[in-house]
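Title: [Solved] TIGR01777 family oxidoreductase 3D structure

Original question kept below for reference.
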Amino acid sequence: MKIFITGATGFIGRQLVATLAEHELRVLTRDVGRARDILGEGIQYLTDLNRLENFNDVDAVINLAGEPIVGRRWSDAQKHLLKHSRWDITSTLTGLIQQSDNPPAVFISGSAVGFYGNQGNQVVTEASLPVDDFAHEICATWEQLALEAASPQTRVCVVRTGVVLAQGGGALAKMLPPFRLGLGGPIGSGNQGISWIHMDDMIRLIHFLLGNPGCRGIYNACAPNPVSNRDFAGALGKALHRPALLPVPELALKLLLGEASTMVTEGQYVLPQRAEEAGFRFLFPQIDQALEAIFPD
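Solution (posted by the thread starter after getting help):
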């Protein structure tokens, strides 16, 4: 299979590429040298998407590109970057698919559970109505741009990803230093939901959607057992054999990150209803099980 991938050097992308070695991969990157160091040889690297006229010779497109949404204050410039790092490339990919006489059979495009906005303690599925906020604004347009590529020849799967858990990056990389020192704990009230997924299940789900012709539309990429921030902190402390009792004041995060702090002080309890209905089964459905696998004794 010939697969075109964006965001291949990111946290999820590099893990995904490692599992697709049997296929012919084409990767979009700004820095070929760095990408080759991360991903290796045997991959065709492309630096300018605008040099392509269509995707006639591509079987599948996987779109994982986007500026990380957490970690910086949301200035007007940062908001513009967060939106357009997702929207512009997705729009271009959709255009190339639409211009193809022999388009790819499948387009898998990223999104996030932030689509749903702050849902409090309500359980959320793909059918739930969103709360309108900045994260929803990003995701709603991002998804719509991808779904416009759908046709009788091309099925589109939009993957609303939760917090992806693995060593070496992502949310855990930011959490580990205080937890390893015994200074970790819940954020704010600790009641906000964390919809998480083990990296292995994240990669398996992408493969599942890639290989199942009946799959199309929206899929929540998160384990079937979301937890509160308090319970997540407790599970991480347990896995690291460290206490997890020191709360992080919500006010401190607001002072540090401004509006962006809502990404950790608010949350959702999201279920992967459509993935499970399609027959996908999680290797790591429980948070204790997932973290113990990431941090074995």
